[in-house]
């Protein structure tokens, strides 16, 4: 049986906290963007698509640096946030969640898009002839039918968010109890003499959480498809 | 009355069609695949914006490209039954049926939920998901769903085309009952002549994006200048009524505007209205009433006109029996041998008749 110290527990709890906040923040925008990319017909769709996928290919440190530029206390977004609302994102849990959200955003968008592409537009056409307007159709037909994609995206992003390192450490730094999530704690442990045991325990927990996330995503996906009458 | 006039082009195909549909009964858009009939239906439903056009129902304009008017489908209140039923897979049959009902205009009337269940025989299916229905059951539920939205006009896009022969035979009587109960204009797209015979009151004949002819089924099936006449099963459709049954002879007697016909015993009661198709190939001609002959129906007729067929060796004869016109297809050799000229008094021998489904009322 593994015994975790208070600090180690803190890192686990913080990771779960940051990952769930990041999913909550990015879910609605991801659904909107996925809709635009799948159904939208506008100039620049290609550019938007590329932009959304940037975090997958750009080094995470660069994403963290860009966030620092934008949301830093003197950045074009960070300064007004601080001044008007007293919100400081850098070096805070919220900031860690923001960095995680940006990094996992393409994962959610991709999964939601896959879900949306499985929705037969003919069903939405049928709903329109039955008297349902655009919002009504989206809520009663499109959204339920794309929900397996949304859930899969949310769970995958959550699992990936538990392990976000580069962007978080760059933007939010490595503050125990504030921004020190699991991977940051592991990294800190490996840099500390005699920290191998801590690093090992936390690595095992990371591995377990990621596995649980992926298995959960698969199970939810199957269950949803059954609910939607696809099998 | 539904008025439609449309122009639309896509991928080298152009549609240029105008027609009207009667305020009640079935108007069939009939033509080969790719003639543009489904495009017309989509435009009427509001699912397609044509390049140019005007669509109005009872004077209310739904589409007028010149005036930049285009009502979205959800504000037209037209029921649409698709070829593939398009039931919502995440809802059971009952929820599917109520989807349109809950969104119907408050003042609109129509058959009740229970009446529709009874009409279409779908009560036992209410709790099932669409994935667990047969093709025929799905199409019946789709019909019910369209009917329950209390439509002002019912549009059907080849609703039987995706079904096998047995399922078609299962649904056709339901469609006929729906037509008699619904008291709505129905625009019915099909390329199957038996569906026209069974359901249509009026016919809009289409080919390559154009309307070739429009009129009642009786009128158009009696014309020999339309593609209908080149079909193997070409022949007139005539309305008639069951006059009496003669069970001892195994025959039923039908009355039509030009006389009476005998056919094998039917199950419908006397007084039932039916339509018979008399195929031109099944009608032969004699100058004198023949004696011993197996053909049951030998009727006096007047040769009204002689018209060409697609074949140089055969002709169509237009035969007048009272008010009714009948077609016969005979060889040119027979025409010469009998010395037939317009105005001649002849005997029409009708070897067989085919029936459609009973019409209400």
TrEMBL record, chain A:
Which PROSITE patterns does the record cross-reference, listed alphabetically?
ABC_TM1
Xref: InterPro entries: MetI-like, MetI-like_sf, ModB_ABC
Metal-binding as a keyword?
no
Instruction: Note the topology in the membrane.
Output: Multi-pass membrane protein
Q: Where in the cell is it found?
A: Cell inner membrane; Cell membrane
Report keywords, A-Z: Cell inner membrane, Cell membrane, Membrane, Molybdenum, Transmembrane, Transmembrane helix, Transport
Which part of the chain is the ABC transmembrane type-1 domain? 12-215
Keyword Ribonucleoprotein present in the record's keywords: the answer is no
Q: Which residues cross the membrane?
A: 20-38, 50-73, 85-109, 150-172, 202-221
Superkingdom in the source lineage: Bacteria
Chief location bin: membrane
- Gene3D superfamilies attached to this UniProt entry: MetI-like
Q: Which family does it belong to?
A: Belongs to the binding-protein-dependent transport system permease family. CysTW subfamily.
Q: What biological function has been recorded for the protein in this entry?
A: Part of the binding-protein-dependent transport system for molybdenum; probably responsible for the translocation of the substrate across the membrane.
What is the protein named?
Answer: Molybdenum transport system permease
TrEMBL record, chain B:
So which domain of life are we looking at?
Answer: Bacteria
Start and end residues of each Mop domain: 292-359
Q: Is Cell inner membrane included in the keywords of this UniProt record?
A: yes
Give start and end of each ABC transporter domain. 1-233
Q: Which UniProt keywords apply?
A: ATP-binding, Cell inner membrane, Cell membrane, Membrane, Molybdenum, Nucleotide-binding, Translocase, Transport
GO MF annotation, one: ATP binding
Q: Which Pfam families match?
A: ABC_tran, TOBE
NCBIfam families named among the record's database cross-references: modC_ABC
Query: What is the name of this protein?
Result: Molybdenum ABC transporter ATP-binding protein
Report the source organism.
Roseococcus pinisoli
